[in-house]
Amino acid sequence: MPKAPSQYAGFWIRTGACIIDTFILLVIMLFFLMLFYQGDWDLVLDTGLSEQPSVLWFDIFINYLLPFILTILVWQIWSASPGKILLGIKIVDATTGENLKPLQSVIRYVGYIPSSLVLCLGLIWVAFDKKKQGWHDKIANTVVIKHNE
Predict the structure, then answer these.
(1) Beta-strand relationship, 89-93 and 142-146
(2) What is the mean pLDDT, run by run of 10 residues, along the chain of 149 residues?
(3) Secondary structure E strands in the chain
(4) Going by C-beta distance under 8 Å and a sequence separation of 6 or more, which residues neighbour residue 98?
(5) Which residues neighbour 59 within 8 Å (Cβ) at sequence distance 6 or greater?
(6) CA distances from 51 to 30, 32, 83, 114 (A)
(7) Which of 41, 111, 112, 125 gives the lowest tally of CB atoms within 10 Å of its CB?
(8) pTM reported for the whole predicted model
């Protein structure tokens, strides 16, 4: 459990971690998209589109299920995303300071939806909250802390 507010990870370091995670996720998604929609490399890279017909189940998997599965998986394995690991922060239960439970990870991930809906106010909230919690953290009872191991 964090002992002092100075141990909570703030807005900018979390933003940096998010940028790193987004880049990694986009590379993974692009790999699968290019593998599935073969042959349109230039068109896919230039426009994100392919001349081949779209396959709804695959697009839903790549855009929604794959990010969900990968995010929950890495949170469960490392208590952090790759970006958070690189920047020395991790996600823990706000009450116990222990690693996230699976249901808590799912709630936190789904909590990004209301956090993002109104001009991303729930994400910006991290900058002003004394525990540096966004709405998704408050919903899931989590905090992001500086981690030195």
Answers:
(1) antiparallel
(2) 66 97 93 77 67 80 94 96 96 94 97 94 96 97 87
(3) 89-93, 142-146
(4) 92
(5) none
(6) 16, 16, 34, 35
(7) 41
(8) 0.85
